[in-house]
Amino acid sequence: MVQLFHVSAGYGKDTPALSEISFSLDKGEFAFLTGPSGAGKTTLLRILYAALRPASGQVLVGGRNLARIRQSEIPYLRRMIGVVFQDFHLLSRQTVFENVALPLEIRGFPKREVHRRVASILKLVGLGHRSQARAEQLSGGEQQRTAIARAIVGEPALVLADEPTGNLDDALAGEIMELLDRINFKGATVVVATHNRWLLQQYPRRTLTLEHGRLVGDT
Amino acid sequence: MDRLTYFLRRTTRQLRGASALSTLSLLTCSVSMTIFAVYALLFGNVRDLTQAWNRRIEVHAFLVDRLGHPEVQELTHRVEALPGVREVRYISKDEALRDVRRTLGDSADFLEGLDSNPFPASLEISLEPRYRHPDHIREIAENVRSLPGVEDVEYGEAWVRKFASILSIVRVGGYLLGFALFVGVVFIVSNTIRLSFLARQEEVNVMRLVGATNTFIKVPFYIEGILMGAASGVLGLALAYAFYLAVSQRIDVSLFLLLGGERFHFFSTAESLGLIALASALGLLGSVFSLTRALRQT
Ligand SMILES: Nc1ncnc2c1ncn2[C@@H]1O[C@H](COP(=O)(O)OP(=O)(O)O)[C@@H](O)[C@H]1O
Ligand SMILES: [Mg+2]
Fold first, then answer.
1. ipTM value
2. Which CATH number fits domain B58-154: 3.30.980.10, 3.30.70.3040, 3.10.310.10, 3.40.50.150?
């Protein structure tokens, strides 16, 4: 599903944010991406959904080479990837329903199908009763769950979650993990960037560890 | 269908968020369209009037006195044979006198004092439509003049011809004015849509991140541009209609009737729809320009 060969990337500074990263993930795998703040977790995820082009190396995601992907192909790549952004990227003035429906509207789903799927996903993340609330009226945890609902509503083959339990206590973090597990169980490849030690201990999975932009552990 | 309602929902949201500035832009565009519509209205009416005159352009051939019946027939046939001649009507001296009497009405009394009829017999020569052009008319007139039995020839008054050339200058002026106004409308719409787009930068970014194509992002803005154009077309037309009402009440109807049987008229339905379509196209053009620029920047 995901293969990286000697990938380096940066933001035009002397020290690259990532250097010489190589690993691969099979279809249906679940992996944590961990490391201290500033290690390069977000940068690595951004490369996977083609928001950042690697300076060198090759990146294959779902059969596409992201080092050479054409701009016009990126939307179609992103439709097979669901991303839970670290800062959510919700449309604050729009409702939970509209936010979650967006990926389906983009794909041109018929209205009834959009309603059916959004309703069932919102139930799954426990936001069925909040669907008409505007995103800006939600609590941190509700925003996080809305972001997750939007990431998975299109049944993507790859789910990337950047600190999805960032603002949550352990109980809520556990719920989110159960949710991601469930998606993974249905066949999606899942990558979760986190520095939440409790989560890593509670849910032992393959763990890729970054430090100063280098891959220092893969267990 | 669901696609369209989705896009319209997004457009509606954009319009609801529209600023006072975009209302001002809309009004500016409407005024531009009004100016254009009024110009087109006046031009169209004057053109129709001159065409009505043109339709009546005829060549009159006055005949020498005491021309016998066979000679008149011979002459009529020869005139009919000329290229561009549609119909030839013979007006005898008596008919000419009667026509003058009828035209003069009450003031025809002085004619009674004449002991002989001073009006010559004539041929009224009407032309095929495509020969109703100054150059052709002159040619036909000269041909008729050279025929035996013709005393003199009179045709399409000079001022009608002069007016036709003025009208073509006015037409070119209209094109230039229209072009300038349209460029203005495109420019204003383009700026308005660009601001609307920039105000939604965050939304646009999010849509990109979840896999929206450029087209998907742009369509509601295109619709917004088209609506803005169409609205300024409708408003412009309404203001032009108000102008028309005000002016047509002030114009003496008989003046127009006298000048050629044409009334001062507003645009036809087709012309009105055409104007709105034109304004919509300008709006679309404006939004295409602005988005090509704005998307390149992001
Ligand atoms: N937009 C950016 N511009 C410049 N530098 C950045 C940007 N984003 C991240 N960085 C730098 O890249 C490095 C990796 O950051 P990041 O991938 O966000 O780490 P993490 O997600 O592990 O905290 C850090 O040194 C950070 O300062
Ligand atoms: Mg990060």
1. 0.90
2. 3.30.70.3040
